[in-house]
Amino acid sequence: MSVTAPAGFVAAGVACGVKASGALDLALVATDDARPVPAAGVFTRNRMTAAPVLVSRHHLDATGGHAAAVVLNSGNANAATGAPGHADAEAMADAVAAALGTAREAVLVCSTGLIGIPLPVQHIVDASPALVAAAAGDAAAAHTAAEAIRTTDTFAKEVTVAGDGCTVGAMAKGAAMLAPNMATMLAVVTTDAVATPEVLGDVLRTAVDASFNVMTTDGCTSTNDTVLLLASGRAGEVRVDALRRAVTEACRSLAQMMVADAEGATKSVHLEVVGAADDDEAARGARKVADSNLCKCSWYGCDPYWGRVASELGSAGIAFDQTRISVSYGGHVVAAGGVEIDHDRAAVAAHMAQRDLHVVADLGLGSGRAELFTNDLTHAYVDENMGTS
Q1: How far apart are alpha carbons 87 and 318 in whole angstroms?
Q2: DSSP β-ladder status, 356-362 and 268-276
Q3: Which of 62, 68, 136, 145 has the most CB atoms at less than 10 Å from its CB?
Q4: Are 189 and 228 in contact (CB under 8 A)?
């Protein structure tokens, strides 16, 4: 049931005409009584910031971290649209707020799609009453909302986590421009736990750091990235650590779905860099490998080309000793001390042929470690991104 699994939430998805194809393109997640509840958000660090991000930040500030609804459109990012785009984002909030009977500042706004194209906001305004009327608390409504935020995603991304004393539900979209921090992604997370906006902010930042901030598909950061967390409080008090675990589990699950669904991807890669001088250097090294087109192409070709991994780490600007590095694929060490060693080639080939790859590079220098979720680079990615049409 994803976002409607926690008590107190409803969802909906409709086609309003933003997408010329007539596909679903407008979604809503709201409290079932239209009353604001504690909320928190984490947003893109791209300074080319989309209007919906600016509006949602402002609304959270204005309400002291409360929200009654999130309205999301796909098919148009409403980014690089100047003052008119900002007015359009506020108009989305106004229309949904009017239909719900709540304040404009209680509505958060998300958009995803092509950048630099004016948003046909009147389609959204006109469809808002029907969107609110369609809202329901069942699994079908939640799924329709998740479908409505897809762009190049090949499937709707939803998850429900049964935590210790609470439930967490989440939906997301994302298939490209996925790079820390965060990724071309939108995510709405709901919980029935009692929590203050301050606690939710802390919990969400921890969850994002362990999920969306440790994935990269193409090294590009979006203008619209938004992750929102709303808490209805219907389940009562829960331990903060229990809520943190459940939200983190939900976000990590969504992040792994995004990497698996990356544009043109045939491989999901769990990359670990260990034995670094410290965690920060491990993270920098991991990102250098994960964003390497050479490494990505070798994974696409099912080639355990460990030299490319070592080369990227050696040029990452971190502490490095080529006589200490080792690299493994699927638990099979193929190189140690900076040279190839005897290994079970058939077992490595079998691992490389799988959809999910596990690559570990050990720098042999210290206790620093980091992980990233990434993918391969294929011809289909180029085909998908050759233009705006």
Answers
A1: 45
A2: parallel
A3: 145
A4: yes
pLDDT surpasses 70 at 76: yes
pLDDT recorded at residue 22: 97
| Total count of domains within the chain | 2
| Whether 171 contacts 190, CB under 8 Å | no
Could you tell me if residue 255 is inside a domain?
A: yes
Q: Looking at the domain assignment, is residue 130 inside a domain?
A: yes
Residue 249 shares a structural domain with residue 291:
no
The conformational region for residue 317 under phi > 0 = left, psi -120 to 50 = alpha, else beta, is left
One domain for residues 35 and 91: yes
Q: Flag whether pLDDT at 242 surpasses 70.
A: yes
Residue 330: DSSP 8-state: T
Q: What is the pLDDT of residue 389?
A: 45
CATH number, domain with residue 361: 3.10.20.340
> Does the annotation mark 217 as catalytic?
no
CATH of the domain at 28: 3.60.70.12
Specify whether 190 is located in the same domain as 322.
no
**pLDDT for the residue 356:** 94
Same domain, 151 and 29: yes
Res. 220 pLDDT band, cuts 50 70 90: low
Q: Are residues 279 and 368 in contact, defined by beta-carbon separation less than 8 angstroms?
A: yes
Whole-number Å distance between alpha carbons of 22 and 40: 32
Query: Dihedral, CA atoms, 191, 193, 196, 200, nearest 10 degrees?
Result: -40
pTM: 0.82
Same domain, 276 and 246: no
Domain limits for position 331: 268-384
Average pLDDT along the chain: 93
Distance, CA of 272 to CA of 279 (rounded, Å):
11
Show the tokens assigned to 90.
Answer: 């506020």
Question: Exactly one of 184, 216, 217, 374 is catalytic; which is it?
Answer: 184
